[in-house]
Amino acid sequence: MKSELFKLEFNNLVIRSNIFNKFQNKEVYGGHVQIIDWLINNRTDRDDLQLRNGMIGIALNKFQKHIPDWLLSNGYIEDREYEASELGFKFSLNDLYQWLSTTKIRINFTSNDFDEAARKSSLDVVKWINDHNNQGCSKSAMYNAFTRCKFETVRWLHENRTEGTHTICLFSQKSLTKESEKSQTFEMVKWYHQNRTEGFSHGFMDFVASFSLDIVKFLHQNRSEGCTNLAMFNAGLAGQLEIFKFLKENRTEGVSSDLIGSLCYYGQLEMIQYLYETGKPNEYNWSFNLMDLAIKSSNLDLVKWINQNTTHVSTTINVFDNALSRKDFEMIQYLIDSKLYSNDLESSIISQLKNQSLFIIEIVDWLMKSSILDHDKLVNLAKQSNIPIIYAFLKDYNINI
């Protein structure tokens, strides 16, 4: 019934290639073979095989794995060997191996495909590609698997391929979303140290300092590559206090001079407190405008701590407008209550009223009901703006113009 209604409706349209593509792809998403069949047979460019080949990737990526072989069995795509790049499917598909092992479509995988599969696919897919291509892989295959924490794939490549790998520099952030994955990285690093000779770059310790004390200690005790001053910097930005302490006590690289400013900008209160309380005179660069950076971080606790415990409370930016642009009501209240602002509040109010996309009624209402605004100045600024809606707004607060 759906296909008949679709045909009736579609016959009323002017048939253009881009219209067909839109509907054709939509039906591929839903796996509606009857409608796809009708669309292919009624389009004006039926011989455009490239468009139909592209339907294979669309179908697979939308979990409609029956569509590609349906296209082949009905003669809508050629019965030949395809390059994987022609088909456009993603190597990250969960059920890719199941499809590869059952499809009648013949696919030639290049070494680049092999490398990409090692990064994104399961070990079963890697094994399948290994058995169905004649180019092998490159050093990037094991490197990709390692950086994505695919330990089983790394070991399989080690045992079954001879290309080796590149020097390891980092892990992909996408592979470090779960604690179990972070734990596996330590086991993989130990295995790699014992079984491979390519080694790690000094940047590898810099990178892992942001999440793993175990790996940092292991590299320090068992490897000679060392690290740079980015190791302590990365540990600080990640809030890894124990890693920071270990590096400070056991390494000599030090830390970059912009550490304090960066910690304030990213709102790392615990690290700031530790450095302020334990640092030696001139050990760290405290010359940054800490309050400005803390306000930008939207970390109210950090702003309060700086205000209450240090002498670094001066501001150089329009801190009120900065907090206002973030719609940070609590920050604005604290800045005003603590007199940590130097800008013209009346001008900020008028600017808010001019730009309604930035207007936050709760904040403006709170300011208007406070006793800190100069009403005469508001009136003068409103007259200069000559915008009726501003007059009407101020009238609600008994300010007549």
From TrEMBL:
Gene3D superfamilies: Ankyrin repeat-containing domain. InterPro entries: Ankyrin_rpt-contain_sf, SecEffector_AnkRepeat. This is Ankyrin repeat protein.
